[in-house]
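Write out the bound-state structure for NAP.
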Amino acid sequence: MFRLDGQVALITGGTRGIGRAIAEIFCEAGAKIVLVSRTMADGEETVRRLRQLGGEALHVGADVTQETDVERAVQAALNHFYQIDILVNGAGITLRAPVTETSEAEWDAVMNTNVKGAFLCAKHVLPAMMEHYSGVILNLAAVHGLKGGAGVTAAYTASKGALVSLSKSMAVRYGPNGIRVNTICPGFVPTDLNKHLIDDAPDPLERRREYEAGYPLRRLGTPQDVAHAALYLASREASWVTGATLVVDGGLMAK
Ligand SMILES: NC(=O)c1ccc[n+]([C@@H]2O[C@H](COP(=O)([O-])OP(=O)(O)OC[C@H]3O[C@@H](n4cnc5c(N)ncnc54)[C@H](OP(=O)(O)O)[C@@H]3O)[C@@H](O)[C@H]2O)c1
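---
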């Protein structure tokens, strides 16, 4: 069950946090991995780790907001592994600010990374998938894409809502081409993206307990919680699942 033997997965943001956990779990399931991110040192370190796990991996230094970078990364993946079966759009940034405290440049940075980046990667990977009449695209959105939350992450919330909608549009358009497109919406998973919310509190342990108390399962998520959901959605066992939005959030959205 849930094997990806011989498949090639291109994972943006695969060098840290949730993306890295997806890379490791996909690698253990038999996939060959192409990591795309900007920081070369993180890429090299993650490639070493995936090779230790017995897998094949490649890192391409690229910025997903730049179309020429994305084209180069996709071409490098195809030159190295000859195919791309799975695209995970994991690269993302966040911003904690309501509308009145968000600059135009901050808005553009969040939308360009979280929405345009996913669009550009899909645009350049889809032709290779269509040629083989198969493929899987997973977009990492967030519970913030489904609700307003505390109202203090305007651009981030808008970007993740857009990603949920983009996924559905692609699922409908490319379903007849044998391509599935799904979204995962995680709750709070402490990573480099957001762990300052806990670490910078006067009493970090107390702050963590406050966050945990808001979750019906009374704990925050781990990168592996999300990666296992990604593995299911990427696998053959999910072959009739497309256009879906899978919430992985310890019960938060049920409240
Ligand atoms: N952690 C959470 O609580 C949570 C919850 C819901 C959804 N998510 C979503 O899950 C995804 C992963 O989050 P995370 O917590 O794992 O974040 P993270 O630990 O900060 O990792 C982000 C990754 O994205 C890459 N990245 C950022 N901007 C990029 C760009 N312009 N081009 C290429 N790569 C870029 C980073 O590498 P470089 O900086 O080296 O480029 C890094 O590998 C994000 O889309 C996030 O919004 C996270």
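---
The mean pLDDT is 97.
The two ends are 32 Å apart (CA to CA).
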